[in-house]
Amino acid sequence: ADDVITRDEQIYVLIGAHAKCERKIKAQIALVKGESGDCIPEWDGIICWPQSRAGQLVSVLCPEYIYDFNHRGRAYRQCDASGHWEQVHSVNRTWANYTECTTYLNSNYKSQEVFKRLHLMYTVGYSVSLASLLVAVFILCYFKRLHCTRNYIHIHLFTSFICRAVSIFVKDAVLYTVSGYSSASDSTAGCKVAVTFFLYFLATNHFWILVEGLYLHSLIFMAFLSDKNYLWALIIIGWGVPAVFVSIWVSARASLADTHCWDISAGNLKWIYQVPILAAIVVNFLLFINIVRVLASKLWETNTGKLDPRQQYRKLLKSTLVLMPLFGVHYMVFMALPYTEVTGLLWQVQMHYEMFFNSSQGFFVAFIYCFCNGEVQTEVKKAWLRRSLTQDIKQKSRMTSSAGGGSCYYGGMMSHTTMHSVSLSVVTPRSLSVGGVFLVHVTSSLNALTTPSRISHTPLMA
Hints:
By secondary structure, this protein is mainly alpha-helical. The protein folds into two domains: 7-100, Irregular (Hormone receptor fold), CATH 4.10.1240.10; 108-381, Rhodopsin 7-helix transmembrane proteins (Rhopdopsin 7-helix transmembrane proteins). It contains twelve helices and 15 strands. It has helices at 7-31, 103-110, 112-142, 149-175, 189-221, 231-256, 271-303, 309-327, 345-371, 374-403, 419-425, 441-450, and strands spanning 38-39, 42-43, 48-49, 52-53, 57-61, 74-78, 87-88, 93-94, 176-177, 180-181, 407-410, 413-416, 433-434, 437-440, 460-461. Strand 7 and strand 8 form a beta hairpin. Helix 3 packs antiparallel against helix 4 (149-175), helix 3 runs parallel beside helix 9 (345-371) and helix 7 (271-303) packs antiparallel against helix 8 (309-327). The chain starts with 6 loop residues before the first helix and ends with a strand.
């Protein structure tokens, strides 16, 4: 029932086929004893060739006990006119044509260039996503005013994307090189651990996408997940549930199909982790459809007669496009297509599509829900303003100290004031934010110092 075979298992099956062939050969030779002019039955190391008449081209089905063969193809041998198997004199071996048997192997070899291009594509995509996600997590953790249940969920989602990208890089380093399998891809504990962590973080990423969908859906329809107490339940769903079914898969794989590095599919065992992931994708897509439906109805109710229908459609399209990366809608496009064929235009379109969107999804999510977030931009601007004002004050202090006599050079004019006067006129950085509006009191105070007769107590608004 398992679709994976180890090297030792293949050798064992081949030895059995050889023994069976030897018994057939002995039986045939005993029956045709005394006859001449025919090619005798023979085992060539792969196929058991039957007795054949002189001048006959013999064809045999590619043996099923060779796992990588095309079992619908045929192998060929030529029995020459003298009753001997045709030889290749340059190598002193019997001629045989195994071209049809090795169709799959040849097609995989031709696909190496495609695999290299796909590897480069998702490596660049995951690298860009990893860098942007690290910055996004730092921003959300650094600014205390951004700490809320919604952003906590965003942090966990970003972390799951980071872990997924790192696990893919680790898996590639352990299992593969650009040209194929590396020497580290033997059946060792290290490569099995790498594959296990890759599957776990892949599952956690999908389940945190599901958590985001559930949270947004609840805010629209029920509004019961705004309390921080529910955050622990969401954490269990995001990190705990995948740990359960991945652990079950590890136990089943170790006991029933402990082959290679666990990176090759092992029959129906793959459904242990694929069914929960596919279920999460489907549920999230249904939530996405329902939310878009509600957005469309609300848009038509509130803006009927106010906006042109084309503007309403644009607003709905914009909202839909913003939600698509968060809900992982792109997973639904080729969800029903299996990876059975590794050739053809459809397969290449599918792989390029999935590698691009899967690897860049983390970047899109970080860009839309962190870098384009108004609250985040406000906090970053405030921090930058505080830093700029602090540096400006330090620079003015150094200029005051170096000018001598307490005179301060500012704005191209001399103002005979002391450093004590400047420090009294400066508002502390903490007082720069009132209701989200920046009060640049420092600028007005310093400007007033240059023109004493025009001192204004009205702060400038920025």
